[in-house]
Amino acid sequence: MAQTKTDAKAQVIATYDGHPTFQCSTCAATIALQDELISKSFAGRDGRGYLMHSATNLKMGKKEDRSLLTGTHTVSDVFCLGCNERMGWYYVKAPDNTQKYKEGKYLLERERLIKDNAWKLDDE
Fold first, then answer.
1. Is residue 79 a part of any domain in this protein?
2. How many CB atoms lie within 10 A of CB 40?
3. Burial class (CB in 10 A: 0-12, 13-18, 19+), 11
4. 6: domain range?
5. Phi, psi torsion values for 30, nearest 5 degrees
6. Which has the minimum average pLDDT: 5-9, 88-92, 94-98, 99-103?
7. Residue 46 CB-half CA count within 13 A
8. Which CA distances in Å does 80 have to 27, 58, 62, 89?
9. The dihedral formed by the CA atoms of 44, 91, 38 and 16, expressed in degrees to the nearest 10
10. What is the CATH number of the domain that holds 59?
């Protein structure tokens, strides 16, 4: 069991360490790799949103049908595990074939994110 835990920790470090990420603007929990960004041209509840392939350190709210700009989608709000701030939503089901590409993706609100570029300083 300890070996599995060590392997998982090493995998997480290899995935995120030194890579540009998006973090929660309230508590700085890592939410997503910037490489997972699909589009910046989405609208959230409170402004612009980013469509993401995946996200982490989030918990799902209850599923509900919500009227969005592109029709009524089945979504679940997602909340930061660190501070419980609402970060956006997860697309569970899309209304028609032109919107199916959103299913299984996350809409993260830009105003709730900090962009961490993972820059290294020369004197480190």
1. yes
2. 10
3. exposed
4. 2-116
5. -70, 130
6. 5-9
7. 10
8. 9, 5, 15, 11
9. 100
10. 2.170.150.20
Q: Per the structure block, which two tokens stand in for 87?
A: 């970060």
Q: Is a pLDDT exceeding 80 seen at residue 3?
A: no
Joined together, the tokens standing for residue 8 give 């998982």
Q: Which residues of 50-73 are buried (b: 16+ CB within 10 A; e: fewer)?
A: bbbeebbbbeeeeeeeeebeeeeb
To 5 degrees, how large is the angle CA 82–CA 84–CA 88?
110
Reading the block at residue 106, the tokens are: 């996350």
Encoding tokens for residue 103?
């299913």
Phi, psi dihedral angles at 39 (to 5 degrees): -155, 145
> Tell me, what amino acid is at 5?
K
- Read off the tokens for 57: 């350190």
pTM of the predicted structure, to 2 decimals: 0.84
Task: Report the mean per-residue pLDDT for the chain.
Answer: 88
Q: Are 21 and 31 in contact (CB under 8 A)?
A: yes
Q: What's the domain count of the chain?
A: 1
pLDDT tens, residue by residue, 76-86? 999 999 999 99
Neighbours of 118 (CB within 10 A): 11
